[in-house]
Amino acid sequence: MALSILGYAAQSATTPLAPHSFQRREPRPDDVVIDILYCGVCHSDIHQARNEWHSSVYPMVPGHEIIGRVSVVGAEVTSFKVGEMVGVGCMVDSCQHCSACQAGLEPYCEKGATWTYNDKDRHDGLPTFGGYSERIVVSDKFVLHISDKLDPKAAAPLLCAGITSWSPLRHWKVGKDSKVAVIGLGGLGHMGLKFAKAMGADVTLFTRTPGKEAEARRLGADHVVLSTDPAQMQAVARQFDFILDTVPSQHDLNPYLATLNLNGVLCLVGLLEPIEPPVQAGMVVLGRRSISGSAIGGIAETQEMLDFCAEHDIVSDIEMIDIQNINHAYERMLKSDVRYRFVIDLASLKKAG
Q: Is 52's pLDDT higher than 90?
């Protein structure tokens, strides 16, 4: 029997999110039903709700940084128990057969991963709805264990902001001998600082905003460079092995490329638009430097990150909100007025009326 669910949804690109009732599928034998406790608010939720990526389908229930408790397990589920704290991130399925899926890289599924919201279930064709809601039904292969050592509220953003920062740092083998820089101090950037420091790297923050040094050091930075100051940028020329670029808007990569050493890598995790202004090819060719990109990690990698966070006491810096304040939170996010991630207390849904 389908589940009747209350959530918050966008009905169009121009209307505010508001209470919305919808149906979730009847649980399958391999499904886990999760009562949602907390859901992080990602900048991509705004892009999707407002159709800024030109692929939105309405009504849309956003949210892909989900923490909750298992309330039902299907007959074939053996790895989760009722009452367990679990998480769900940006995807809820994939083909599970292609080379990417077989390598544990489900977000790069050759047939396309099934995203947690604004997508279609690959089995029944029904729309997927996200975590701004009471509960969710997910295949057990895409559910993650959340350690009792983690504050579940602050763990929610680990399911997107966390893994998006973690995956490239792991892929490019950042460790105790690495010199790493992070561009931007937001939801992704603050996690990048925490992870790189915990991995043992020497960590620098690039920022355009003066006065962030104390905050950056609290989060793990050893050094802070004001990227609008040519003298400071010249002082770190050819220094870094790896740069994590978390900026979601178009910006000039050339000054940062100049700070990479031989074989250095600049990895884009925030920008999906064309690179503008153009990259000077000589900056890449003459230093054998690379520009790369990375999305979220696979399920096994995400579990590895969560276990690392439990071991090293790492969570996101958050501000809790009620679901009724989600539209105001979106406006604040657009002004960078949050340190560093909003998390919705889904108990507030009961106030929705």
A: yes
Six token digits for residue 182: 């992070």
Task: Kindly write down the DSSP assignment for every residue of 59-124, as one continuous string.
Answer: SB-----EEEEEEEE-TT--S--TT-EEEE-SEEE--S-SHHHHTT-GGG-TT--EESSSSB-TTT
What is the distance between the alpha carbons of residues 67 and 312, in angstroms, rounded to a whole number?
Answer: 20
> Does 342 score more than 60 pLDDT?
yes
pLDDT value for 3: 86
Query: pLDDT digit string (tens) for 177-233?
Result: 999 999 999 999 999 999 999 999 999 999 998 988 999 999 999 999 999 999 999
**Contacts with 68 (C-beta within 8 Å, 6 or more apart), sequence order:** 34, 35, 36, 37, 38, 85, 86, 87, 88, 135, 136, 346
Q: What is the pLDDT of residues 61-100, one digit of tens each?
A: 999 999 999 999 999 999 999 999 999 999 999 999 999 9
What's the pLDDT score for residue 2?
A: 83
User: Where residue 247 falls among pLDDT bands split at 50, 70, 90?
Assistant: very high
Q: Cα(176)–Cα(203) distance, rounded to whole angstroms? A: 10
Task: Give me 108's structure tokens.
Answer: 């790069």
**Under 8 Å between Cβ of 160 and 296:** yes
d(CA 109, CA 88): 18
Q: Enter the DSSP assignment of 4.
A: E
- Distance CA(130)–CA(91), nearest Å, equals 10
For 93, the token pair is: 């399925």
Q: Which domains, ranges and CATH numbers included, belong to the chain?
A: 3-160+317-351 (3.90.180.10), 162-293 (3.40.50.720)
- What type of residue is 242? F
Q: Which residues contact 287 (CB under 8 A, 6 or more apart)?
A: 238, 257, 260, 261, 262, 264
Q: What is the pLDDT of residue 51?
A: 97
